[in-house]
Predict the structure of diguanylate cyclase.
Amino acid sequence: FLLPLDIGRLVDKIDSLVSRVEAAPYHILIVDDDPEQVAYYAFLLQQAGMVTSVASDPMKVLSILIESKPELILMDMYMPGCSGIELTALLRQHEAFVGVPIVFLSFESNKEKQMEAICRGGDDFLTKPINPDYLIQVVSTRAERNRNIRYFMERDSLTGLLNHTNLKEHLSRELLRASRSETFLTFAMIDADHFKRVNDTYGHLTGDRVLKNLARLLLDRLRRTDIIGRYGGEEFGIILLNTDVTAAEHIMNEIRENFSRVIQQSESKQFFVTFSCGIAGFPECADASTLTLAADKALYSAKENGRNRVVV
Ligand code: GH3
Ligand code: MG
Ligand code: MG
Ligand code: MG
């Protein structure tokens, strides 16, 4: 049977959401200065299938958060240098961490103190010693909801690809990784050719459908490890990991040719759309802004030189 269009789309989204949730274990950050406590709670969560990392120094929490984006923080109350409450209040001022679930876990039984922890940004307060099943239930339920919310917030609603903000976050993070592991990374920028004309001739709804077709093709043709985002209106950005510019040029040319042969359909007519692509790579470009600028420049030159081409 046929589902109405938007319900069908929702089902698609939920399906891909579910497969993602099943795919990766929840990543929990334990912030605690006591190594024995850390070892015990890390063991409990790992037994339940979660992945844990540890910050025994509260001052390091920010850099760990930026690098690994844990899906929940299990927060100790009293640590040398900085209390869990102060740290939580600090994180809540950061737009990137305003939503990460923070669950306090402490021996503190004073209700006033517990309330303060909640008021300053904690989502929950659990007291030690805690029933292991209860801990696991609270942590996994909150981490799951966070993952679902994050999934929708990070995505562009038309294409389901990563949105601009998230793509840029990925680019910075992957550049750090590439530089640490001394691997190649390529950034490709795509811009649909004469797209204003497509809209003017066939209407915006048809234009939207073309953009969805392009997104679908990118998802089908690129590797699962490649990171694909909608950079802006009819512009897309792709981060190709472990790929140098020569290999990336090859891949993007293949996709470009494929796309140019896709028969686009308006109500009454069939037509074709092409795209231009600019490519730049790490380590030639060392940071995100240099890389983006170089890819943008290459894209501009692809447009100048007749469109429907890939320029490095
Ligand atoms: P060029 O080959 O130089 O890139 O020409 P262009 O017409 O694609 O470039 P221009 O930047 O002048 O126009 C981009 C067009 O893309 C204008 C805008 O209406 C269209 N566009 C941007 N976002 C969307 C969208 O979400 N849906 C639709 N249907 N059109 C969009
Ligand atoms: Mg402590
Ligand atoms: Mg454009
Ligand atoms: Mg364009």
Q: What stands out?
A: The mean pLDDT is 92. The CA atoms of residues 92 and 182 lie 34 Å apart.
